[in-house]
From TrEMBL:
Residue stretches of biased makeup (Basic and acidic residues): 166-181
Protein name: tRNA-binding domain-containing protein
GO molecular function, one term: tRNA binding
Residue ranges of domain TRNA-binding in the record: 248-354
UniProt entry keywords in alphabetical sequence: RNA-binding, tRNA-binding
SUPFAM superfamilies hit by this protein: GST C-terminal domain-like, Nucleic acid-binding proteins
Entry keyword Lipid metabolism: no
Residue ranges of the region described as Disordered: 166-249
Keyword Cell wall biogenesis/degradation set for record: no
Gene3D superfamilies per record: 1.20.1050.10, Nucleic acid-binding proteins (2.40.50.140)
Amino acid sequence: MSLARFVSHLRHLISPPRAPTMDFQSTVAKLGSPVKDLVLSFSQNGTLHLGKQEKDKTEVIEWIEKIGTQNNELLTGDGLKTLDAQLIPRTYLVNNYLTAADVALYGALHPTISKQPPAQHFAHPSVTRYFDHIQTSRPVLTAASTLGPAFAPVAFDFTDAPRADRKVEAPKKKEKVKAAEAPEAGTSKVPVQSAEAATADTPGEGKVQKKEKKEKKKDAAVAGEETGGKKKGAAPAKAAASDDGEPVPSMIDLRVGQIVDIIKHPDADGLYVEQIDIGEETGPRTVVSGLVNYIPIDQMRDKYLVAVCNLKPANMRGVKSFAMVLCATSKEGKDGGIELIQPPANAKPGDRVYFEGEQFADATPLTQLNPKKKIFETVQPGFITLDSREAAWVNPTTKSVHKIRTKDGVCVAPTLVGASLS
């Protein structure tokens, strides 16, 4: 066999099955124009945004099938009421990132919502919130721009919009949550958290999600094993780290992230809800950050940053946050300014961020920080920006300086010197 034929044969063997793509294309064809054209433009001929897992791909196609075959039912009063209830806990239809299913639903809803008078915009508040989120997503704006005025943006006034009624099931009598399992004070997963967020969880929600937390912890451990060795610049895989002994900064899992989507929290004026790509095969993580009053949303979009990835997930006003954005706060306090810590210019999502020094540079971070041991809270007071604006951890005992860096360079604050990091 010739080399060319061998390569062609090998490509055939390892190439993904064609069936899902054909299923997607035939399903999208049922949408009709211009929704079909919008979805295909967004999906670049049907090859992208189907989801990153087989389960997600199946759900995306099922949603598009439903939208294509039940369009009229979805847009009736009862259909919108049902859809509104489905969207209460969701940012996206499938998983935690934008897919072709969202674009199809947005396109199907557009003719109805664009013709509504402002007084009716919040008859179904979760539908309106979802619709506005999707229409302002940059990939959707780009796809819509190729189709002329068919999907012109719809303006909403959210000043007096009703808050979403996030109901949860009553916990079973046998399920009790021990006091030790409740989140401890000071373990919030968002920087400069607003006072609203401190009492954010719906009463009883922690009980309902007791089982979910255990599953998330297990999933997080598996995800860490699967992606840890694939990050560009990451150290070779090592045995799981232990949290025995004194807390040290290398126990904290820092990685480069990029904000791929951001909205204001629907139920908290001071919070953003971000989708942050940190190089994981499971897609971007949902992160809630209390930065609305300190960094304009336009300065957050598409930004590269440093994410703390092994804090325990926390519910923030009904939205679960799976990481924390590392920020620098002026030595004069929040009013003096807050800035995102920036990785080197050529950094990529998922790049490992570590602390200089023989003791820390090659250490493996913990899979998840135990809130009871207050590891982050113990180490955090040593986080600072130097006179060079470089981010570092200063050992409180030896005063040794350990800069925070990737393989390509040191992470910095844009302007702040002597700032604390959290």
